[in-house]
Amino acid sequence: MEIMKEKNNDLQKAIKWNEETFMKTIFQYSGQLSGLTAENSMLNTKLEKEKQSKDRLETEVESYHSRLTTATYGHDQSIMLLHTLRSNLKDNVVLSQQLSKAESQFKSLEIELYHTRDALREKIVVLECVQRGLSQALVFKEGN
Question: What pTM value is reported for the model?
Answer without folding.
Answer: 0.41
